[in-house]
Design a protein that fits this description.
The chain is mainly beta. The chain is 8% helix and 52% strand. It is built from two helices and eleven strands, in the order ββββββαβββββα. The mean pLDDT is 94.
């Protein structure tokens, strides 16, 4: 009993990575690796519908939805695009759609290559409201923390990278084949 796991590969946390959409001055967007995060914990926050019927002694509960959130804590690195975007949202106290960003979460364990330096992998994309919480809690470096809270439906996609996972692009059907 229990010997099957001895021959299995453990999935490392570093194999599930996130990329934030950064919109440039010319309105072109790139998805940049979210580096410098000391915490990025995913919470499903399930929504439940519970009720008791008069003819039954126990309650019934149904799962009716999810309100996914990602708690984050980061060390501030100047020049790291995703970190600078979160710092800007926090420091300028942006609200509404000005504080919404799309994030792609890539499962690198699904990556396949084509021999030309380009990798494909399965991913999910969703828009999140950036909800800052606190900053400056460390004496060693400037830190920021908060939550990304779902701002729409999640979509399964494929991504490509040609720069060793520094950026990703949403794959076209031609790139997947």
């Amino acid at each position: 009993m229990g010997k099957g796991i001895d021959n299995k590969k453990l999935v490392k946390r570093s194999e599930k990575v996130a990329f934030m959409e950064i919109i440039g001055e010319n309105k072109a967007s790139t998805f940049e690796l979210m580096e410098g995060f000391t915490d990025m914990t995913f919470s499903k926050n399930p929504k439940e519908y519970s009720r008791g019927y008069v003819d039954e002694d126990t309650d019934r509960t149904d799962l009716t939805g999810y309100v996914e959130s990602i708690s984050y804590t980061l060390d501030r690195y100047k020049g790291q695009a995703a970190v600078e975007e979160i710092v800007r949202i926090t420091e300028e106290e942006l609200i509404g759609t000005d504080a919404v960003r799309r994030i792609i979460v890539v499962d690198k364990t699904t990556a396949t290559g084509h021999g030309n330096g380009i990798l494909n992998a399965k991913a999910r994309i969703r828009a999140y409201a950036v909800i800052p919480d606190s900053n400056g809690s460390s004496r060693d470096c400037m830190t920021y923390s908060g939550n990304f809270k779902s701002h729409g439906e999640k979509e399964d996609i494929m991504v490509t990278t040609s720069d060793n996972w520094q950026t990703v692009n949403i794959a076209t059907s031609e790139e997947i084949e």
